[in-house]
């Protein structure tokens, strides 16, 4: 077995036992990146080999000097390209920020560094996190490692593809409407969207501020828990972080789920759900039942309104969040402007791609005079109803399980020109963001056509430990083949 | 920068609450922020974080004394928002363009919105001055408009005489002095009147005051561009202003200028004008009251009824003159006084008050003449020596030895026989000339009253011997 | 309710975006399709339901009145497309500058 094939748990064990060094691990990972990256385009930027290896060596030295090494000491990590890294380009997958280099680290990145992680580079994404396929990147679409003719999902498609292909064991993504979970499901890796406010958004380039959360991508549940523990917690620079202390996320509880009540919502198994996805998810539910969990049928009545409510809220917030890209302080400035107003219009029109412009237009429209009540306010009221659906569900169950997406990874080009069908592929993930609850996607096997299927586990706010417990019990019991795709 | 987030500064919540209480507005229990969306180069995020649906306070008023009556100006709301940057509209080495300085961006400020209750420029001016005094006394602004610590945006509309409906208003921004406010209001009232007289319509728009050309220039031209698409700011949480915060703020609030004025007139029996001047700055008021206190202590039961008025004259005229001549501020002079304080324990204001009271006490006891007192004060500001010692050192004590003075008077009269003859012929105003001569010979130390009395006695006794 | 080309132009004006003639026509059609999806919400009864602008119940998050760390001007301005000393340069704000 090559070092790049190891999961986080195996890496942690191997590093602390001294079976291999961070330098050896990192070299293996960098070789892997060199070999598979041309086929995948999972990264926008990979840092210089020398720089990265020097950091790995420092981690080895600090481990050797004894004491208490950080939880991620010497572990290679990739960071989605909308999370600010000091001195390292942060493009958001956009022409607009092609040459933008942040002068500061996001809080999550600062904490990663503090935990000893070795940041290898920045992963590809749908422009400004707007997309579900990674086809909206200005730097070319990322490919799904399981089938390079298919999309990896999005918008954290680069992080999911990189982890799935063994380019890194851990990566950060961001999840506004499923952008970590959906690509994790499509690529057969674990993706976590924490409770809103669990992880600081300081330094995360804003798409939709009331929905955005930084999340984790890993091969195993233990990796997700370690990565999330490292970055979570209150941040005085983000007023919307939660004051709740971060608990230990993963107790070693084996595979026993006795006493855990799991709800399966009818609405997630209705029309539009792919047969092979339904089959894998149903098998997973049976496995969970067999581990001692009580399985109940529940209802999330407003599920089908989630997509409309989500896109209205997200686009409205985005229309303001993306107003700062005007060619004045950073980012693309048009060479063709004659006056101030044309500088704005030209810079924005040249710098943004089609989907970003589409969403700015929709969000601007939804907030504009005469339409605010009909669209924006209505969507925020429906959001309340969806949040209540979950509150009611969590009165009787500890976790809600459902498919992560209605289908497996679709073909490149299949939906990119049909925004409505693209938006509808987010139907199972957006309610979580609207309600602010945490959710995790764990692989539950391959479909008949050999593509990964994701099982989504949702819990009430700040109950991540239950989510990790169910996920890890399932992961162990199901014995899902964790070998890497052929590339 | 992309990814940066706002956090609310607690001090601005207290400042805004104090302003709201001073303006008799009702403070909301819960307040929140919104984004106001528009593009302008001094607005780096493309939106301003402000309060829209949930301002900190609403529905207040301010009573302004204006031309002998009290004018009540309605306050629509008091809210918190973030400041924008500064555009420097200047040519640079012929390269053209505007320069944007974003240093001030995101700094919180308190905005006060009035109702359309002001009818002319003088009323507006009186209101703004009174508002400035309040803000300065609360310590929420230094009041220095050129520093941008206090800024006004004005909205103005005109209507034909007799019309009951208000006309369309325009807003003028970039007003950096009271003078600019007056000029801009006059300019815009005139422009709007001409538009209406020519049968045109006033367009609702925002104008920028251009100080150099004294013109208001439209800021945003496109119609409909003022659709600000407000929505709740998702990056900030709501805040609550509970009774405890309101009480804490209320207790820390100083007396407001209006109340100070009424109190000064009542307690010290000084004219309203004096009270108005003395309450213009909190530091002046503090100095005045400390000086009166220190003076009464020194004079004890012998204090004349006019002592407080004498101090008022000193503060308004003599002290002001001292500052102007030296081009220093009251704060600088206070600091100097404190550095000279032998006990070293006094703060600037009380050190200055103590020196000032020493001088005025000598003057009121008749120990120094008026000009000598002024010289004494100037000298007392330059050194640490006790005022009593200074009087001797500078030989400023009044010449009250009547015999010595009488011989001086005789000398003067003897030296000016022609004038004495003219005096006796009826040119009585020559008394002033003689007194001047006498005082001059004492170096200003003689008590002018005593000198006059002795002079008249000598003239009357026909001292032409 | 259908959106017309003029509406799209107005929104583009507010959003500071420029579209070509063809883009405007295509976008008008596309926007109507997406708005039809949004209009499904009209069927949801939301009488008496408060809007959920934020999902966390936290209140009163403040910072103290002290200056934080400051970026040195050269770092703050490093990404500027056009810089003059410590300021960003743009085409004239006032028409006659
Ligand atoms: Mg304002
Ligand atoms: Zn220049």
Provide a concise account of the structure shown.
The complex is a heterotrimer of chains A (about 475), B (about 475) and C (about 100). Chain A has helices at about 10-15, 20-40, 50-65, 105-115, 155-165, 180-185, 220-230, 275-290, 305-320, 340-350, 355-365, 370-395, 420-425, 430-435, 465-480; strands at about 45, 75-80, 120-125, 170-175, 190-195, 215-220, 260-265, 295-300, 400-405, 440-445, 450-460. Chain A has about 475 residues and is α/β, with parallel strands linked by helices.
What does this structure look like?
The complex is a heterotrimer of chains A (487), B (465) and C (97). By secondary structure, chain A is α/β, with parallel strands linked by helices. Chain A has 15 helices and 11 strands. Helices cover 45% and strands 16% of the residues of chain B. In chain B, strand 12, helix 3 and strand 13 form a beta-alpha-beta unit. Chain B is elongated. The relative contact order of chain B is 0.07. The mean pLDDT of chain B is 88. Chain C has 3 helices and 3 strands. In chain C, a hairpin with a 2-residue loop joins strand 2 and strand 3. The model of chain C has no long low-confidence stretch (mean pLDDT 90). The interface between A and C is large, with 72 and 50 residues. Bound molecules: magnesium ion and zinc ion. Magnesium ion (MG) binds next to loops of chain B. Zinc ion binds next to loops of chain B.
Write the layout of secondary structure elements.
The complex is a heterotrimer of chains A (487), B (465) and C (97).
Chain A (H helix, E strand, L loop, with lengths): L7 H10 L4 H19 L2 E4 L2 H16 L11 E5 L26 H8 L3 E6 L33 H8 L5 E6 L5 H7 L2 E4 L19 E6 L2 H11 L29 E5 L9 H16 L3 E5 L7 H16 L18 H12 L2 H14 L4 H25 L2 E5 L15 H6 L5 H6 L3 E8 L5 E8 L4 H15 L9
Parallel strand pairs in A: 2-3, 2-4, 7-8, 7-9
Antiparallel strand pairs in A: 1-3, 4-6, 5-6, 5-10, 9-11, 10-11
Helix pairs in contact in A: 2-3, 5-6, 9-11, 9-12, 11-12
Chain B lengths: L7 E2 H13 L3 E2 L2 E2 L2 E4 L9 E4 L6 E10 L2 E14 L3 E3 L9 E4 L6 E7 L6 H18 L13 E5 L13 E6 L2 H20 L8 E5 L4 E4 L12 E2 L6 E2 L2 H10 L4 H12 L3 H7 L3 H18 L7 H20 L3 H11 L7 H17 L5 H11 L6 H7 L8 H14 L1 H8 L5 H12 L6 H13 L5
Parallel strand pairs in B: 12-13
Antiparallel strand pairs in B: 2-6, 3-16, 4-5, 4-15, 6-7, 7-10, 8-9, 11-12, 13-14
Helix pairs in contact in B: 1-4, 2-3, 5-6, 7-8, 7-10, 9-10, 10-11, 13-15, 13-16, 15-16
Chain C lengths: L4 H11 L5 H18 L23 E2 L9 H4 L6 E2 L2 E4 L7
Antiparallel strand pairs in C: 2-3
Bound molecules: magnesium ion and zinc ion.
């Amino acid at each position: 077995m090559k070092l790049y094939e190891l999961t986080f748990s195996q890496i942690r064990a191997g590093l602390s036992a001294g079976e291999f060094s961070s330098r050896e691990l990192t070299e293996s990972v960098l070789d892997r990146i060199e070999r598979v990256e041309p086929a995948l385009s999972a990264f926008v930027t990979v840092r210089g080999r020398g720089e990265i290896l020097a950091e790995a060596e420092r981690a080895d030295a600090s481990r050797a000097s004894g004491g208490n090494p950080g939880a991620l000491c010497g572990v290679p990590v990739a960071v989605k390209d909308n999370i600010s890294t000091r001195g390292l380009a942060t493009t958001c997958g956009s022409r607009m920020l092609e040459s933008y280099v942040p002068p500061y680290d996001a809080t999550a990145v600062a904490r990663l560094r503090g935990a000893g992680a070795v940041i290898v580079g920045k992963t590809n994404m749908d422009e400004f996190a707007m997309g579900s396929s990674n086809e909206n990147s200005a730097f070319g679409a990322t490919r799904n490692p399981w089938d390079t003719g298919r999309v990896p999902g999005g918008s954290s498609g680069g992080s999911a593809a990189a982890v799935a292909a063994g380019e890194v064991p851990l990566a950060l993504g961001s999840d506004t409407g499923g952008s970590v979970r959906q690509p994790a499901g499509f690529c057969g890796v674990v993706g976590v969207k924490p409770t809103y406010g669990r992880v600081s958004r300081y330094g995360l380039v804003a798409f939709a501020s009331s929905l955005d959360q930084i999340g984790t991508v890993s091969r195993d549940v233990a990796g997700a828990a370690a990565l999330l523990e490292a970055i979570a917690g209150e941040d005085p620079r983000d007023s919307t972080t939660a004051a709740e202390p971060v608990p230990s996320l993963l107790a070693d509880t084996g595979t026993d789920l006795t006493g855990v009540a799991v709800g399966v919502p009818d609405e997630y198994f209705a029309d539009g759900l792919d047969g092979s996805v339904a089959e894998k998810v149903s098998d997973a539910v049976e496995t969970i039942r067999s581990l001692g969990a009580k399985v109940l049928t529940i209802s999330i009545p407003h599920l089908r309104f989630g997509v409309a409510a989500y896109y209205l809220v997200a686009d409205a917030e985005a229309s303001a969040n993306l107003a700062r890209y005007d060619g004045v302080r950073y980012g693309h400035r048009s060479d063709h402007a004659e006056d101030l107003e044309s500088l704005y219009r030209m810079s924005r029109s040249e710098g943004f791609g089609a989907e970003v412009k589409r969403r700015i237009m929709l969000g601007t429209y939804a907030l504009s005079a005469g339409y605010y009540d009909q669209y924006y306010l209505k969507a925020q009221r429906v959001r309340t109803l969806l949040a209540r659906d979950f509150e009611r569900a969590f009165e009787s169950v500890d976790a809600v399980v459902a498919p992560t997406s209605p289908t497996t990874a679709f073909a490149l080009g299949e939906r990119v020109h049909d925004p409505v069908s693209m938006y509808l592929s987010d139907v199972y993930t957006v309610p979580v963001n609207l309600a602010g609850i945490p959710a995790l996607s764990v692989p539950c096997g391959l479909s008949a056509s050999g593509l990964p299927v994701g099982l989504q586990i949702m819990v009430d706010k700040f109950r991540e430990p239950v989510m990790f417990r169910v996920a890890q019990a399932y992961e162990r019991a199901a014995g899902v083949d964790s070998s890497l795709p052929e590339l | 920068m992309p990814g940066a987030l706002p956090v609310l500064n607690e001090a601005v919540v207290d400042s805004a609450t104090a302003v709201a209480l001073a303006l008799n507005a009702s403070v909301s229990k819960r307040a929140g922020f919104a984004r106001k969306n528009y593009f302008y180069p001094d607005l780096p995020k493309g939106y301003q974080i402000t309060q829209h649906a949930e301002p900190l306070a609403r529905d207040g008023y301010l009573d302004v004394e204006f031309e002998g009556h009290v004018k009540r100006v309605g306050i629509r709301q008091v809210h918190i928002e973030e400041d924008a940057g500064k555009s420097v509209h200047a040519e640079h080495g012929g390269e053209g363009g505007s320069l944007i300085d974003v240093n001030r961006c995101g700094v919180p400020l308190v905005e006060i919105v009035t109702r359309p209750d002001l009818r002319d420029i003088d009323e507006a001016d009186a209101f703004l001055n009174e508002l400035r005094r309040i803000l300065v006394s609360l310590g929420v602004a230094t009041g220095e408009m050129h520093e941008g610590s206090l800024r006004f945006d004005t909205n103005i509309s005109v209507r034909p005489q007799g019309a009951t409906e208000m006309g369309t208003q325009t807003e003028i921004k970039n007003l950096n002095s009271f003078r600019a406010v007056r000029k801009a209001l006059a300019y815009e009232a005139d422009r709007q009147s001409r538009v209406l007289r020519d049968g045109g319509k006033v367009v609702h728009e925002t104008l920028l005051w251009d100080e150099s050309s004294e013109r208001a220039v439209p800021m945003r031209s496109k119609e409909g561009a003022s659709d600000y698409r407000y929505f709740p700011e998702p990056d900030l949480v709501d805040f609550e202003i509970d009774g405890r915060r309101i009480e804490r703020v209320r207790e820390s609030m100083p007396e407001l200028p209006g109340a100070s004025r009424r109190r000064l007139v009542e307690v010290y029996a000084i004219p309203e004008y004096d009270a108005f001047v003395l309450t213009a700055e909190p530091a002046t008021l503090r100095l005045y009251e400390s000086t009166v206190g220190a003076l009464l202590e020194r004079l004890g039961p012998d204090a004349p009824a006019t002592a407080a008025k004498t101090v008022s004259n000193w503060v308004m005229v003599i002290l002001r003159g001292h500052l102007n001549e030296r081009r220093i501020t009251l704060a600088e002079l206070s600091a100097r006084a404190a550095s000279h304080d032998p006990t070293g324990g006094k703060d600037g204001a009380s050190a200055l008050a103590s020196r000032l009271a020493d001088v005025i006490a000598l003057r009121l006891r008749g120990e120094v003449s008026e000009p000598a007192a002024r010289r004494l004060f100037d000298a007392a500001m330059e050194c640490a020596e006790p005022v009593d010692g200074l009087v001797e050192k500078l030989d400023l004590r009044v010449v009250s030895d009547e015999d010595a003075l009488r011989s001086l008077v005789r000398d003067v009269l003897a030296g000016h026989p022609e004038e004495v003859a003219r005096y006796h012929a009826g040119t009585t105003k020559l008394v002033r000339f003689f007194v001047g001569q006498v005082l001059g010979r004492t170096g200003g130390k003689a008590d002018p009253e005593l000198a006059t009395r002795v002079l008249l006695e000598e003239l009357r006794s026909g001292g032409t011997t | 309710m259908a959106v017309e080309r003029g509406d799209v132009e107005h929104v583009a004006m507010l959003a500071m975006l420029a579209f070509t003639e063809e883009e405007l026509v295509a976008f008008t059609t596309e926007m109507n399709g997406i708005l039809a999806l949004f209009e499904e919400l009209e069927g949801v009864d939301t009488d008496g339901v408060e809007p959920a602008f934020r999902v966390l119940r936290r209140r009163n998050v403040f910072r103290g009145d002290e200056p934080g760390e400051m970026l040195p001007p050269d770092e703050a301005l490093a990404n500027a497309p056009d810089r003059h000393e410590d300021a960003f340069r743009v085409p004239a704000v006032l028409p006659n500058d």
